[in-house]
């Protein structure tokens, strides 16, 4: 599997853990003290890092750090929006679409040097 695909797959999985670590406690632990939520989040984040660190190492063999970062942000938004809508039951807002369009612009600028621009 090409390094970029390995990176995307690992970052996608990593982001699922990250999103649950950062926001899952809002639904499942809202009645508990914040430090209980923090400990639970740290436990989940451990698995995020087990995927994210190798993803960035593999990705850095073919992408520069800026490209890795914007790839991470696009994947984060791609995981976060369904999470917010389906798991947290947040209402859909057009701002999700506008943010995604802004991210596409950021992708263009970060990857433009790769295409001779």
TrEMBL record:
**Domain of life, source organism:** Bacteria
**Which InterPro entries does the entry link to?**
DUF486 (IPR007437)
Q: Which residues cross the membrane?
A: 6-26, 33-50, 70-88, 95-111
**Which keywords accompany this UniProt record?**
Membrane, Transmembrane, Transmembrane helix
Name of the molecule in the record? DMT family protein
Q: From which organism does this entry originate?
A: Fluviicoccus keumensis
The record lists the lineage as: Bacteria, Pseudomonadati, Pseudomonadota, Gammaproteobacteria, Moraxellales
